[in-house]
Amino acid sequence: MSEHAQESVDEPISTQNATQPDTDESTVHATQAALEAAVAEHKDQLLRVRADSENFKRRLQQDKETAVKFALESFIRDLIPILDGFDQAMAFANPSQDKASDGQTDQTSVVAGFVLIQQQILGLLEKSSVVPIQTDGAFDPHCHQAISQVASDTVPANHIVQVVQTGYAYYDRVVRPAMVIVSTGPDTKSAETSANQSEEKAVKKEKKEQ
Fold first, then answer.
1. Whole domain around residue 146: which residue ranges?
2. Residues 157, 124: contact at Cβ < 8 Å?
3. Beta strand 130-132 with 168-170: parallel, antiparallel or unpaired?
């Protein structure tokens, strides 16, 4: 093969090798541009998600504050009619001048009005899961507060004799313990004194009969 033939064969090959770097560079630029676009898109999505999260937290906090602020709204709405009952009871307790001069004050109605108010208040408390603490039976230091002890022939020891102040519980939590008087059982000294007195009377009676 002549040198001219060899040059003609090698010339296209050298041209192809010369254009290859340009193709690779353009491919790299295209890939880089695509990656940058994908990064920008993901960054935008991340910013949107973060903004939505912040808005959700803000709304949740606002809803929580509103719920706390108006938590007693239903309780107050139920309490208002009871206040009306107080107004009516006080109207009976403080009649007009004409009725007072005629002696027409109905004390029975006043008492009945306050009893009704008490029942309404207890019903409202029970509706709100607030109930009076039971005081029938044995003394319980978890919900009772003993203010004194007395001897009793009818009430067993460590049992409640009298309730001085009603206690209340909210669900399973004691809001205020019941103040009570607790029995110590029969008074042994009084029993011994009574027995001695009975025995002395019996002895005196026998001496008189002799």
1. 134-210
2. no
3. antiparallel
Residue type, 7: E
Residue 174 has, within 13 A of its CA and on its CB side, a CA count of 14
DSSP string, 150-203: E--SSS-TTBEEEEEE--EEETTEEEEPEEEEEE--S-HHHHHHHHHHHHHHHH
Question: What is the crossing angle of helices 107-127 and 73-93, to 10°?
Answer: 170
**Res. 181: pLDDT tops 90:** yes
pTM of the model: 0.54
What pLDDT, in 10s, does the model give residues 187-196? 876 555 565 6
- Per the DSSP assignment, residues forming a β-bridge with 169 are 131, 174
Q: What is the pLDDT of residue 89?
A: 77
User: Can you read off the two tokens belonging to residue 40?
Assistant: 């920008």
Token pair for 71? 């938590």
